[in-house]
Amino acid sequence: MSGMTGLALRSLRHRMTAQVATFLAVLLGTTLIGSFATLVETALALGPAAPDRDADRETLIIMGAVVGGWGSLIVLFSVASTVGLTAARRAGEIGLLRVLGATPRQARRLIRREALAVAVLGALAGAVLAAGTGWLLLDLLRGHSVSASVEYAAGPASLGAAAGLVVLTSVAAAAVAARRSTRAPAGVTLRDSDAETGRMRWYRVVAALVLIAYGVGGGVVTITVTANSDDPYAAMQTSGSCSILVGLGLALLAPLLLRWLAAPLAGLITGLGGQGAGYLAAYNARRRAHRLAAVLAPVIVLTSAAIGTLMLVSIDTRTLPGGTEDSDTINLLNNVVVGMASLFAAIMVVNAFAACVADRWAELRRLWLMGATPTQVRRSVMAEAGVVAVVGLVFGALGSLATVIPFSVARDEGVVPDAQLWIAPLVASVVVLLTLGSGRFAARATMRTALGEVRRPAT
Amino acid sequence: MTAPPVPFALEAQGLTRTFGAGTGAVYALDGVDLGFPRGTFTAVMGPSGSGKSTFLSCAAGIDRPSGGRVLVAGTDVTDWDEDRRSRLRRERIGFVFQDFQLMPYLTAEQNVGLPPRLAGRRPDRARVRGLLDLVGLADRAHHLPGRLSGGQRQRVAIARALVTDPAVVLADEPTGALDSATARDVLALLRACVDELGQTVVMVTHDPVAAAYADAVVFLADGRVAGRIEAPTADAVAARAAHLDDRAAHLDERAVRR
């Protein structure tokens, strides 16, 4: 027992860089969730004598719980996949430990303990930061949405809950990844030679369908019910998170989407990417869809959440020109959600791509041994980035419709919003740049390892 | 250099490869002169650390020699840049590795067609099929490597090595990961490449039985050529190899005592 903990700590020290992504995701995640959680605690602590107690209380709770809630979904999703990715990369090493006699249970414990140690550190630091950012958030709201007299009253309860939630998510994700990596019999798993069927687990499909149904349902409710409400923000409350929910749902289905679409894209890319690069990318994307899916998933969420929410704000400012007293705050919060979602998704895209390509260094080296020039090897990775970007944009845009159409209809602009449609191509170009950029970054870093022997100067 | 040039498929002249610099420099290859005539099967043997893998890497343009020349089919490729070396590997050299090195997401047929693909050509379907037929895997053309046995994977790798009709096939411990029965099949296949297709095969191995399939065995020790046996038998090879191993152990012991 203590042996495994000791091993976990030593192995941690050894792979600091690999854990940096996990640490950052946990740190930022706790900071964001924690900031919104402090609003709720502040609301609950409002004394009975406070002026406008009930109104302030409701506003703070809605903002903390609802807006924080959407954001938390994305944050937890990204923390879970970052931790899962880091743990999954250990498969080879876990195989070795098991050859040396570690039981599957011990191996799983090692992965879980490592994740726990990193998550606790990140969450503690995040909670400290959240105390500050929570105060700043309240300060922004004071005098606009809530009375100027509301005092910041959050402490260990909300911050601890936020940190605990993130740590729990991390450990659960590590446990799932650990289970997957110990399912095979002992042995140094020949990961890339395995016939990887990459079948999706049933609960993943169910979760995806529930999220999509929930998002589409919100859209339907917006058109049929809240569109007719006297409160202009009722429609926003029901439709605002729909693009995020549908985006998350589609992201869970990413392996499936890749497998379907890589085939038609194969033809296209083989035509464009000369000298076999597109050919390789197309088959890799199709036959090992579940790996590239780790990159595709955040691209979908990013596109869907960004287009959906930015269009929502655009429609809102157009159709409520004067606004209500809450408009500034609501737009601010919407922008915070977009910013938060984009930041997390961007970190995930870069991290997932780097991990996915780094895992394949042996395979990229093999291509080079077979006579592919370094440029061709790099191009094959870039072609994969191209596939991810195209598929991600298509489904991300589709997901964003779950917010855009209902809200546009609710605000009487019809199915297609009246103006600022350029938001979609703008987001699309940012996403393409991000995806291709992280592909390039990943390819460069990995090629250095893969072709290490030639790079060594001849003495 | 007055004799008429022998048609060597692969030739090393004074090949040297050092690791590190100064007094701590290690000579992995120390002036190796070897020629492999066209249409022959040669085994390269030697104790661990004798430089046989480094030799193969330098010959294939994977590693850059520190000194000496490498000639492939009479062309000096020593100073070629990375892109030309890549082209050399996919056009003029066929590779067979101990761990097969197939692309996991390509079928057997697609793996065999990969070198021409990388050269920007559509592989000749009839040739690919013919080679799969030659290695006895015509009915496995559409299988992914994960669904093939070790021996089958190595036979796909051999078909891939032959697809561009290379000047020389380099095999690095091709039977190292196979059981002895499967290994015999793979060796017989390499032998057939030489006898029936007129290919040139250079095979690094430490298995005397494998080496006995070759026309000649070259021994390396401490980065130098340490002997040669024509028409080898497994016993003769084993005896010579044991002798070299003893000598290497002796040298090590002396080094330790010092």
UniProtKB/TrEMBL annotation, chain B:
Keyword presence, Transmembrane helix: no
Keyword set, alphabetical order: ATP-binding, Nucleotide-binding, Transport
Organism annotation: Pseudofrankia asymbiotica
Pfam families assigned: ABC_tran
SUPFAM superfamilies: P-loop containing nucleoside triphosphate hydrolases
Name under which the protein is recorded: ABC transporter
Entry GO MF terms: ATP binding; ATP hydrolysis activity; transmembrane transporter activity
InterPro entries xrefs: AAA+_ATPase (IPR003593), ABC_transporter-like_ATP-bd (IPR003439), ABC_transporter-like_CS (IPR017871), ABC_transpr_LolD-like (IPR015854), MacB-like_ATP-bd (IPR017911), P-loop_NTPase (IPR027417)
Domain of life: Bacteria
Example of a GO cellular component annotation carried by this entry: plasma membrane
Key word ATP-binding present: yes
Residues of the ABC transporter domain: 10-247
